[in-house]
Specification:
There is one protein chain. With 712 residues, this protein is of the alpha+beta class. It has 16 helices and 33 strands. The strands form seven sheets. Strands 25, 26, 27, 28, 29, 30, 31, 32 and 33 form a nine-stranded antiparallel β-sheet that branches. An eight-stranded parallel β-sheet has the order 22-21-20-19-16-11-24-23. Strands 3, 4, 7, 8, 9 and 10 form a six-stranded antiparallel β-sheet that branches.
Length: 712
């Protein structure tokens, strides 16, 4: 080797390195949205192109690293501020897991779902699951959860009546005061909400901007929550239609439901069941006509003691057309659907396995009955097929259906095959606490109710409260680092298509209302009383939460009445009625505007997300595509703050104007137009106390048109 040539080359390299700008870690970016992977949902054995971004002329090389093998990425595009690198990978029929390694002179780093990092951790690597496709309509969809009995009473003729039947120690109660707080033991209380009520309020839902209705269970059941299903084949006539109404209420002192002849007729008479099923089909048809989807609640871990397969209440024992239940007779066709511990107790054997020991919730015993599995798969297909055409299932306690983890995976694999064969565009969305990673790899669930990577981090940061209002943590209130750590850690469990369709809730039927959490009161309705849930609430904090909800990756999900100011401790207090005639109209107007912003700006549906600001009681982040960028800043302090934020990392010009889409504050909200100048890539923002702002940059239409033409 010519030593002089070597030293000359080395000197040239050192000179070039000295001229390079300081290594700009903040400009490094990639993710698994359609902005950085193509195709975004590849099939097995496809070629997939992975992209990586760095500041222009700022790095020497970047490697795509998969299974420890490094592939040098090629620079394929540059613009005024960034260089874009790409690598094309031939997929197999298995998950692709990868990260990046970046070199700039003598400096190097890794890049994974956390961003820039010094270490390699398999949990945070990017993941692409070949063949895993989630219905496009679910990504970023605005979902509205309806607890039917408490939404609106459109048909008083189907109301559950006082003394209609006996359940958990007392008789059913018809509530005549729509605005009464639910009793602490309110499982037997019925306010009369029904599917006709939903149909009557379709204009309201459409005007609000709802894309999807998620119904809590609709099938025949003795409770108002209906998670103790009595008949999977039929919509409850108390929610649907009662066309033949005869029989008697229970007499005083009579506690046996075999004498509840009015109830028995209402829920076993085939004319009532057929009419109710047909009416549900009409509700779905009307939702579809308005551009809305419908998700059903599937409770397949357990059924109810009233269930026709068990019939502990002897409701179906003497009704023509029904087989004997497993409780009634040992030779029942349904015997193997359940696990019995004592084989010498028939007739009327109550020694069965109940979920968490509850005899009102018989555990379904799939491992011992192929017939049960096939029947439930039939149910799964039935309701997403004509004439009903529901658009998917939300799955109750989904990880618990079998007696082993192995069987649970087998069950959901079979469930997915059944549902997707009947309706390929149906969503399968599970209730799950903890990491969903093992379940959302393409063969089982599409996504989950997003507790860990949304509800909990948002709740802790903005309120310091646990989601049941059972604890208050001063150390987590306003703790931005904890917020980001939780979002990064739990978000890394999701393939992107699952994250984009995850149900991002602030409240639901199992936890306290978010508005109540803003008062920092620890307790429940049975200890504090329901009025305490309304005292000291902070609507400004709630508005901050909704801004995050509508600008975060996922499907923002509104629990009925949240948008109207409904409060409540955890269940049953969170199941208060929608306050028709007493709504908080300003909150409803706010929800309409923020939903409109969510739906009209593509970056909130399919854009990338970049963490930008973390300070005490302050977070900031960007949502962006190549052509549209927004920045969201939240000030949860009780005082004004001023922040200078570098936003050119989102792809905005370093000199431009940002348009204010919304500002919330203690006074309310505004969508009045206001512009903020970006100077040298930075924007200076002053935020009032307890506020949130959404600012947007959009390229002029002609530039945007030219860009889209170039991308094609």
């Amino acid at each position: 080797m010519d030593i002089n040539r070597f030293w000359k080359a080395e000197q040239n390299y050192q000179y070039i390195a000295s001229m390079r700008p300081v290594f700009n870690r903040k400009a490094l970016f990639s993710d698994t949205t359609e902005n950085y992977i193509s195709p975004a949902e590849p099939s097995a054995y496809d070629e997939v192109t992975i992209r990586f971004r760095a500041a222009k002329n700022n790095i020497d090389r970047v490697f795509f690293v998969h299974r420890g093998v490094k592939h040098l990425m090629l620079k394929v595009e540059s613009d005024e501020y960034f260089d874009y690198y790409a690598h094309t990978e031939q997929l197999e029929n298995e998950k692709l897991v990868y990260y990046f390694e970046v070199f700039a002179g003598k400096i190097s780093c890794y890049f994974d779902t956390r961003g820039v990092t010094k270490d390699i951790n398999p949990h945070y690597q990017f993941q692409v699951v070949p063949g895993f496709k989630v219905p496009g309509w679910a990504k970023g969809a605005v979902i509205y959860q309806i607890y039917v009995d408490r939404f609106y009473n459109g048909d008083p003729t189907n109301d559950v009546l006082t003394n209609e039947y006996q359940y958990i120690g007392d008789k059913s109660v018809q509530v005549h005061d729509w605005y009464k707080y639910p009793a602490a033991m309110g499982v037997r209380e019925f306010y009369g909400g029904d599917l006709q009520g939903v149909l009557d309020k379709m204009d309201y839902l459409q005007d609000l901007g709802i894309d999807v209705i998620y119904f809590n269970p609709l099938f025949v059941s003795p409770s108002n929550h209906k998670y103790d299903i009595q008949d999977y084949d039929n919509i409850d006539p108390h929610f649907g239609k009662i066309v033949e109404d005869q029989g008697d209420l229970l007499e005083p002192g009579q506690e046996e439901n075999r004498f509840a002849t009015k109830y028995i007729n209402r829920i076993s008479n085939q004319k009532n069941l057929d009419a109710s099923n047909a009416f549900f089909a009409e509700v779905v048809k009307e939702a579809h006509r308005r551009g809305m989807k419908v998700i059903l609640d599937g409770v397949f871990n357990h059924c109810g003691s009233f269930n026709k397969w068990m019939d502990k209440e002897r409701i179906y024992e003497n009704v023509e057309g029904y087989e004997k239940g497993a409780y009634i007779a040992e030779e029942s066709l349904y015997h193997d659907y359940f696990q019995f511990y004592d084989s010498h107790k028939w007739p009327y054997n109550s020694s069965y396995d109940g979920w968490w020991g509850h005899d009102t919730l018989p555990k379904l015993n799939y491992e011992n009955s192929k017939e049960l599995l096939q029947y439930v798969l039939h149910i799964a297909k039935k309701w997403v097929s004509p004439p009903y055409n529901a658009d998917g299932w939300r799955l109750d306690v989904a990880a618990d259906v079998g007696h082993s983890v192995e069987y649970n995976h087998y069950f959901w694999q079979e469930f997915r095959k059944a549902v997707k064969s009947a309706n390929p565009n149906a969503i399968i969305l599970a209730e799950h606490y903890g990491s969903p990673k093992d379940w959302i790899q393409g063969g089982e669930w599409d996504t989950v109710m997003n507790y860990d990577a949304f509800m909990e981090p948002v709740t802790w940061f903005l309120t310091g409260m646990q989601k049941h209002s059972d604890d208050y943590r001063e150390d987590l209130l306003g703790n931005a680092n904890s917020f980001w750590d939780a979002m990064r850690h739990h978000g890394a469990c999701f393939p992107m298509q699952s994250l984009q369709s995850a149900m991002n809730e602030l409240s639901n039927h199992d936890h306290s209302r978010f508005l109540t959490r803003t008062n920092h009161r620890v307790g429940r309705t049975n200890t504090l009383g329901p009025e305490a849930a309304n005292v000291g609430i902070d609507k400004a904090v709630f508005r901050e939460a909704v801004v995050i909800q509508m600008t975060w990756i996922g499907a923002p999900t509104i629990y009925y009445g949240d948008e109207a100011g409904v409060c409540g401790f955890t269940d049953p207090d969170n199941r208060r009625t929608y306050p028709w005639g007493h709504e908080d109209k300003e909150l409803i107007a706010f929800h309409k505007e923020i939903i409109k912003i969510h739906k009209q700006n593509k970056e909130f549906i399919k854009g990338s997300l970049k963490y930008m600001v973390a300070d005490y009681n302050v977070i900031g982040y960007g949502r962006f595509t190549k052509e549209e960028q927004s920045v969201i800043l939240v000030n949860n302090n009780k005082h004004e703050i001023t922040k200078t934020v570098s936003i050119w990392y989102l792809g905005t010009p370093k000199e431009c104007m940002l348009k204010q889409l919304m500002l919330t504050s203690e006074k309310g909200f505004t969508v009045e137009p206001k512009e903020y100048p970006v100077v040298a890539g930075n924007v200076r923002i002053t935020l009032p106390p307890t506020s949130a702002i959404i600012l947007k940059h959009e390229y002029p239409k002609q530039i945007k048109k030219n860009f889209l033409h170039f991308m094609e």
